[in-house]
């Protein structure tokens, strides 16, 4: 704690509780934009090719609502335990910026599709419930590009605008100010992202901008009332979210310690300098002149539709965690790792369905499969070794046909090369010597015959500390190139030598 910006020698600072509320934008996984048929696939596209008169705001065109965006937004709302509203509408949020073709953004305001939910978080093992104020739908803006002759993206003399992203559907999830540390904020985002991915609502990638976080942070007054908040934007990783919040806590404490006041403003996180900088004083709702979007009918979601959405909900992350612990008898840590991505959880369950024992399969997936995925930068969906093959491999270890060392090598081979399990086993040489039962006894006989002195010491009971026995065991393992099971080798030796 000594070098953390949170710690302060000033005792007043230590008494100011931190209050954080997050606004998280999640890009909805639709093929087309929110109000027009343009593709949402904007990453890496030639600028201004995914556009049409509607998203370019040519006068006379009318927006047409994408039903899938409404369904996905509702799904996310249900995942957050929100109440889905039968009736909501769109507003125009007016402001001028070159990336906003219409000079207003179509967003929901006041009446939104989902209200009043929560998500349970557990940073560093401390459970906490964070309430969700509401979830609303809105369209994304385009992007400004600042080119320079040498290709750098800063210091340009002029800006260009790319509208490919303009009109892509977003859901914005606004939390209550319930978080009290950067670690809680981080865990909240991790769990929202996991939920969005479980629900196939979004890929939730922060780096590509599918998930964006604006953080509101204040330090409470001595009487416990909420302090003035600052909104921080421009954080594009979990790490920058935490750093920005830590920086802001220390900055606000310093301002208050020196008798100053916090001004309500929007600040930008500078990832390179690791500071937040004032961007503009906070605008209020009236600055935006919100008014109803008369070109769009209200969103009506019937009770029957809400029931359909509920029926279509898949197993949620916390439900899966609870079931894995109960059905497979796994520890909390094992469960957390195996259910982190639903694709990995499915892989694990299919390995079990193919006959691998749950506890052993959990170890293999956790220790070996994840290791190879990390080393090769592959996702589980692209992992060439299918769950049924892993199950066969695990069963071979279980039946002692393969030592776990060799089985791990085989797993590596199979993840690199397109060969069958049988071929890989053959190539490993493991099948040439079946190192259990009689074959293992044969090796033991040979080792004993070659070391009569040692054998004599053991037989006459002079190997008090068991060192000679260990020595022979080592020779057996060496001779079998690790293909024997160590405990079986020991068993075979003691049987032969009566020790
Ligand atoms: P606005 O509409 O002006 O953005 P809201 O009241 O909707 O303001 O709040 C936006 C976000 O700011 C919410 O996530 C909320 O939890 C958070 N927030 C509100 N007050 C505070 C505060 N005093 N400290 C930290 N966060 C706050
Ligand atoms: Mg806001
Ligand atoms: Zn369009």
What do you see in this structure?
The chain has 499 residues and is an alpha+beta fold. It has 16 helices and 16 strands. Strands 2-6-7-10-1-11-12-13-14 form a nine-stranded mixed β-sheet. A three-stranded antiparallel β-sheet has the order 5-4-15, with no helix packed on it. A hairpin with a 4-residue loop joins strand 13 (265-270) and strand 14 (275-281). The longest helix has 20 residues, at 238-257. The protein is elongated, with a radius of gyration of 31 Å. The two termini are 55 Å apart. The model is unreliable at 1-13 (pLDDT under 50). Bound molecules: adenosine-5'-diphosphate (ADP), magnesium ion and zinc ion (ZN).
Compact description:
The protein is 39% helix and 17% strand.
Give the helix/strand layout.
Elements: H1 11-14, E1 18-27, H2 67-79, E2 83-84, E3 87-88, E4 91-94, E5 104-107, E6 114-121, E7 128-139, E8 143-145, E9 160-162, E10 169-175, H3 182-198, E11 211-219, E12 230-235, H4 238-257, E13 265-270, E14 275-281, E15 291-292, E16 299-300, H5 303-311, H6 317-328, H7 332-338, H8 342-353, H9 358-376, H10 387-398, H11 404-416, H12 421-428, H13 437-450, H14 452-459, H15 467-479, H16 486-497
Parallel strand pairs: 12-13
Antiparallel strand pairs: 1-10, 1-11, 2-6, 3-16, 4-5, 4-15, 6-7, 7-10, 8-9, 11-12, 13-14
Helix pairs in contact: 3-4, 8-9, 8-10, 10-11, 11-12, 13-15, 13-16, 15-16
């Amino acid at each position: 704690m000594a070098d953390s910006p949170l710690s302060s020698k000033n005792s007043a600072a230590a008494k100011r509780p931190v209050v954080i509320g997050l606004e998280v934008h999640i890009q909805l996984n639709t093929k087309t934009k929110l109000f027009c048929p343009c593709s949402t696939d904007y990453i890496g596209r030639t600028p201004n090719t995914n556009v049409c008169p509607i998203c370019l705001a040519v006068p006379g065109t009318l927006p047409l609502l994408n039903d899938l965006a409404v369904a996905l937004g509702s799904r996310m709302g249900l995942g957050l335990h929100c109440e889905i509203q039968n009736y909501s509408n769109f507003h125009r949020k007016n402001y001028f910026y070159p990336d906003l073709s219409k000079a207003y953004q179509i967003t929901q305001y006041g009446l939104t599709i989902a209200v009043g939910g929560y998500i349970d978080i557990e940073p560093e093992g401390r459970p906490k419930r964070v309430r969700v104020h509401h979830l609303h739908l809105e369209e994304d803006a385009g992007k400004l590009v600042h080119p320079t002759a040498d290709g750098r993206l800063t210091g340009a003399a002029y800006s260009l605008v790319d509208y490919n992203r303009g009109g892509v559907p977003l859901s914005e999830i606004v939390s209550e100010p319930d978080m009290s540390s950067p670690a809680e904020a981080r865990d909240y985002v991790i769990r929202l992202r996991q939920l969005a991915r479980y629900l196939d609502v979004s890929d939730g990638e922060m780096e590509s901008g599918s998930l964006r976080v604006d953080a509101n942070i204040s330090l409470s007054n001595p009487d416990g009332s909420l302090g003035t908040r600052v909104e921080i934007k421009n954080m594009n990783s979990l790490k920058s979210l935490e750093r920005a919040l830590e920086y802001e806590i220390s900055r606000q404490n310093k301002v208050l310690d020196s008798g100053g006041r916090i001004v309500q403003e929007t600040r930008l996180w500078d990832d390179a300098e690791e500071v937040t900088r004032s961007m503009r004083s906070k605008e209020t709702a009236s600055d935006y002149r919100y008014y109803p979007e008369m070109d769009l009918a209200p969103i009506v979601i019937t009770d029957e539709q809400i029931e359909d959405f509920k029926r279509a909900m898949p197993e949620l992350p916390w439900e899966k965690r609870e079931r894995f612990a109960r059905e497979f008898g796994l520890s909390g840590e094992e469960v957390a790792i195996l259910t982190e991505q639903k694709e990995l959880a499915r892989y694990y369950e299919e390995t079990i369905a193919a006959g691998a024992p749950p506890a052993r399969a959990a170890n293999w997936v956790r220790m070996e499969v994840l290791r190879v995925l990390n080393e090769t930068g592959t996702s589980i969906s692209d992992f060439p070794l299918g769950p049924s093959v892993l199950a066969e491999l695990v069963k071979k270890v279980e039946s002692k046909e393969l030592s776990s060392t060799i089985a791990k090598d085989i797993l590596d081979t199979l993840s690199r090369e397109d060969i069958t399990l049988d071929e890989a086993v053959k190539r490993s040489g493991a099948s040439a010597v079946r190192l259990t039962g009689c074959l293992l006894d044969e090796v033991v006989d040979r080792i004993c015959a070659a070391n009569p002195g040692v054998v004599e010491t053991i037989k006459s009971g002079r190997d008090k500390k068991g060192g000679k026995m260990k020595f022979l065991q080592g020779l057996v393992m060496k001779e079998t190139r690790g293909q024997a099971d160590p405990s079986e080798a020991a068993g075979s030796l003691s049987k032969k030598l009566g020790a």
